[in-house]
Every structure is written in structure tokens, then in C-alpha cells.
Amino acid sequence: MAWIKEKNRRKSLVLETLYKHAEEKTGRPVANILKVHSLKPNILKGHVELHEAIMFKECELSGTQKEMIGVVVSAANECLDCVEHHREALNQVTVDEALMKQIAKDYMKADIEEVDKAICQYAETLTKTPYKMTKATIDHFKELGLSDTAILEINQVTAYFNYMNRVVQGLGVEL
């Protein structure tokens, strides 16, 4: 579970409602990454809303590209449980286990499109050395045909997965 206690869902109508929503959306029991927020239901609610907005609503990036970012960010953060979790999610979208392992190990050698390598490189740089970000990177995205909206999504997905990695690693969340 985690290194901190969790509130029992049955003792909070807000938690019960949020947990049921999560279970209906995924068809699975509530994930530990959500349960760790149980002491602060308002933050859990915000987290769920942010996750849905970034990962599912009106997106230009594909599900594959988003999970690819999750794998790269998690690898850069050495969050091995997160790498495995997102590699599995990515594999469900692409059904290419070897490619997913390669992206986790070295995306520059992976057989992916130039735009996807640029996305991975952005995610890795923003994760490890954000002070090295330049307008040239954004200009390169535009040269590759990405819109400002897609570029914003790349940034938001990268930032979101960094947040998730920090929660997992900082609180000992078992995935």
C-alpha cells in the first residue's frame, strides 16, 4: 500500500463516491495511487479530475504517446514500479512488448517516428534538466507538424507523470 495510513472509504461519502467512480471507469479496484490521497479527499478529487483532463479529454496526442511519456519520465526518475506500470499500459495500447521495453531502455534506439523521439527527448529533458529547455525545442515540434495544443499536452502529460512519480516514491506507494 503506502508508508502512510489510508482513510476507510466507508467512513466518507466523498471517498465512497470518488472510489466508485474510479472503479466504474476502470473496471478494477481503486488503485493505490488514488488511495494514498484518502486523507485529503479534496486533493483526490482534484487528482482524478486532472488525470481525466490530461489523459482522456479532447486530446491531440494518442494514448500511445501519452503512455510512452509515462515510461520515459518514470525511467528518468528511476521509478521502476512506475516504468513497469506504464510499460504494461503502453503495451496494451500498442501490443508490441519488445518496442515498449526498448522505449524504457533507450527510446533513441527504438523503432519509433521522429516526432515520438522528439516527444520522448522533451519528456526526459524536462524531467532531468528542466533548466535546459529552450524555444528551439518548441520550434522543432512545430517543424514536425505539432500544434501548440499538442505541445501543451506533451508538457502537461510530462509534468503529470513527474507528479505521480514523486507521490509514488515519496510515500512508498505500491502499484
What structural class is derived from the secondary structure elements?
A: mainly alpha
CATH superfamily descriptor of the largest domain: AhpD-like
- What string gives the helices and strands in order? HHHHHHHHH
Level-2 CATH architecture of the largest domain: Up-down Bundle
Shape: globular
Measured on Cα atoms, how large is the radius of gyration? 17 Å
Please report the distance between the alpha carbons of the first and last residues: 8 Å
- Give the uncertain stretches in residue-range form: none
**Strand content of the residues, in percent?**
under 5%
Q: How would a textbook summarize the main sheet?
A: none
Q: How many strand units?
A: 0
Please summarize what this structure is:
By secondary structure, the chain is mostly helical. It contains 9 helices and no strands.
Characterization of the model:
The chain has 175 residues and is mainly alpha-helical. Helices cover 69% and strands 0% of the residues. The protein has helices at residues 13-26, 32-35, 41-55, 63-76, 80-94, 97-106, 114-128, 135-143, 148-171. Helix 4 (63-76) packs parallel to helix 7 (114-128) and helix 4 crosses helix 9. The mean pLDDT is 90.
List descriptors.
mainly alpha, 2 domains, 175 residues, 0% strand, 9 helices
Show the helix and strand layout.
Layout (H helix, E strand, L loop, with lengths): L12 H14 L5 H4 L5 H15 L7 H14 L3 H15 L2 H10 L7 H15 L6 H9 L4 H24 L4
